[in-house]
Amino acid sequence: MTMTPDSAFDAAAAVAPAASTDADRSPADAGAVAHRHFHRSVLAIAFAALAGCHDPTAASIAGQFAASGRRDVDLAAAVPGDWDRVCILGPYSRNAAASRALGFEWPAETSSDIASDDGISLLVFARGRSVTAHVDYPRGSGDFSNLAGRCFPRADAKFVQIAHPARGWPGLFPAHET
Question: How many Å separate Cα 5 from the centre of its chain?
Fold first, then answer.
């Protein structure tokens, strides 16, 4: 089952006990209730964010980015496996864009939702002329879309968040270029 942010909030609300009226609460109880509601809200938001990363590779990348305080991510550390470069495809990319970036034919349109989803970037991990892994990565968990069409060797697959880039919009950029 895929969880959407709305369904995550609905699920959180379903397990929350019914609230009493303000007239039923003492000031101390009201503070405790507000505290519990705050924690439930935080948990629901965290659950909704993680539900968007149902792919273990996406979850690993998002987890590393979140652990850094949304400052940076090192794909070589976050994505194990046998790959020597990562190529990034932006929203609405087609097979031709994948072929240009990778240097060989690869069916991005049937392997991903990238051709129809502007909420993701497609990260394609390759070795030589083979794709070893790929992930539809949610832009809200770190936006790689400014780098569409570019590939980075594994050793340079470190990215930093830039709030006010010279070109493009806020997102992740190669650490070695900043």
Answer: 14
Asked if 87 and 145 sit in the same domain, the reply is yes
Residues 91 and 141 grouped into a single domain: yes
How far, in Å, CA of 106 to CA of 133, rounded? 12
Cα 67–chain centre separation: 13
66 and 147 co-located in one domain: yes
Instruction: Please give the residue range of the domain that contains residue 45.
Output: 5-51
DSSP H or E segment with residue 135: strand 130-138
| 5-15 helix and 27-51 helix, angle to the nearest 10 degrees | 140
- d(CA 45, CA 119) in angstroms, rounded, equals 18
Q: What is the DSSP letter of 68?
A: T
Same domain, residue pair 139 and 155: yes
pTM of the model: 0.72
For 100-115, the pLDDT digits (tens) are 999 999 999 999 999 9
Distance CA 121, CA 123 (A): 6
pLDDT along the chain (178 residues), means of 10: 38 40 52 46 38 80 98 97 98 98 98 97 98 98 98 98 95 96
Amino acid symbol at 61: I
How many whole angstroms separate alpha carbon 61 and alpha carbon 54?
A: 12
Angle, helices 56-67/27-51, rounded to nearest 10 degrees: 130
